[in-house]
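In this section we walk through a basic example: taking a raw amino acid sequence and producing a predicted 3D structure, encoded as discrete structure tokens. The instruction is simple. Fold the sequence below.
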Amino acid sequence: MSESGELIIEPKSGQPADACVFILHGLGADGHDFEPLVPALPLPENANVRFIMPHAPRLPVTVNGGMIMPAWYDLLAMDLGRRVDEVQLKKSAERIQALIEEQIDQGIDSRRIIMAGFSQGGAVAYHAALSFSQPLGGLLAMSTYFATADSIELAEANRSIPIEVHHGNFDPIVPETLGRAGFDKVKALGYPVNYRQYPMAHALCPQQVQDIGKWLSERLAS
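The resulting token sequence is shown next.
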């Protein structure tokens, strides 16, 4: 698994992509983790959406005894504050922003690019989207937390980005209190944000998949 690699799924319509959805996986996984999600999403048949699922680099993770595994950044403590290596997190966010720039250079309107992330990937998605210099189409934060809320430099271009926050109320890995805290933070900052709670652990559930499909369809309708 290379640091620069990513899984790319082109539109099932066979037509050139006119929209793009990035999905960032969680700790210990890779871009293939969310590959089964794509065909399960209830998107319109004529939706020309490219899905890009980058692979995280392999790093030693402190809370896992220094074990080397796919990680967007090091987790220093599993406390309620989720102490993280912010330098590594921001480096990962910059890498994702460079991938977004590549899509824009290929002709995709930035407002038709959606950023999504799960768990660790969600923390990177928060930072990458809210500090990006061009307006994006939306941010989906799944079972995650806003790790850089107190240090991020918010981009004016994305001060009105629609944000969707999803969390399971039985999550033993990332407590729902952290998901709520992220929601409360962006709401206090004035972002248009919606919160959805699901009866699940640290995962996705069928109702959530339906909701994601509907949300993406609304964001990319034109």
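Looking at the output, two observations stand out. The CA atoms of residues 151 and 190 lie 17 Å apart. The radius of gyration is 16 Å. In the next section we compare this with other chains.
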